[in-house]
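WARN no homologs supplied; continuing
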Amino acid sequence: MKLTSALRYLDQHTNLEATAGRVEGLSLDRMARLVHVLGDPQTAYPVIHITGTNGKGSVARMVSRLLTAQGLSVGTYSSPHLERINERLAWDGEPISDDALGEAIGAVAAVEDLAAVTPSYFEILTAAAFRWFAEVAVDVAVVEVGMLGRYDATNVVEASVAVCTNVGRDHTDGAPGWRQAIAEEKAGIVTAGVTDVLVLGETDPDLLPTFAAAGAVETWLRDVDFGVAADRVAVGGRLADLRTPDALHEEVYVPVHGAHQAVNASLAVAAVEAFLGRAQADEVVEEAFAELTIPGRFEVLGRHPTVVIDAAHNPEGAASAAATLAEDMTLPGSVLMVVGLLSGRDPVEVLSALGVADAGLLVVCTPDSPRALPTSEVAAAAERLGAVVEVVPEPVDAVRRALAVATEADLVLVAGSLYVVGPVRAALREMEVSA
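OK structure emitted
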């Protein structure tokens, strides 16, 4: 299959990323059937499986860098993409080519009738990724959960190492007991007696029994077995001391912004050492992080004015973005914000955490998604918080408006959704924004 035909085939299947509403009848049966007729490619290599409300994409990218620095061949599966669908499947850090992606999706299409199932968009891509990793003979696959864990399509793998970054309120109605319910779903990526180590970033003591009951051979707890021993702001990122059960990696330069990224780095280093069964050499850790980039995560794309994009889309992510803004950035001018949100989020909570009341201007836009929250709702929430608000529906036009108002001393922050950040990131390369 050529990529154009493959994408047409994909679009003929239900894309839950683009639809709102509750999913009923959760089961892995359909996905298990699909990979079975492909020869169960996900069993051809060990897997590090990563879940969590926030940070799992960053951790997956860091883990992949660390493993590649060890000389291993590494497949990485992540979602959603920022600009091109190819980003979701990577081999040693390089996105899959158009031809290889078309072939991988085509291989899934060829067995759909044999499997006697109608897979979803995400299930097709997941199966294609697993098959491609087997075909190129990766030494290890780093697999990011799409949503929650237990019934996510990726959970047909049996992880050697499982990672849970944290438990937040995404994908829940917030009813009493939601933290316990979300923890149970995320703990579902552990295969009892098979998963050697669960690396747990969530520190709520009330949730620890749930994760312990998942049945990993060992559970490593953040701030007990591993963690950040020290963390300082550095030019372009953080300088952190990262502690694991077997090592202390001192003054590791992590070239991404935010104290939360130092925590993510500790999770990644612990996960790789759990997988290897030994400490990593300091120079290998330093090499792995030296060239680390995490597109769309507090990524600085311009200066004079400073332009930052961040995929913060929930209250926890918004709070991290605001903290990073305050701690990592020297701001002689004002902050202007461009924000679009998806349904399922309380706009007051997200905007309050982001600090829109203190912004010089908030430009509200519409994410490029059927799940977009109407700009009128977002603008009304912002006005209730005391923000100065304009509405410019198209995200790129919204950024142009903010840039037109900004002085060279100001900072423009684009946030709220990957479906805002992705199109803006592509467009900024075409704008006259100095890096």
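The CA atoms of residues 334 and 410 lie 5 Å apart.
OK
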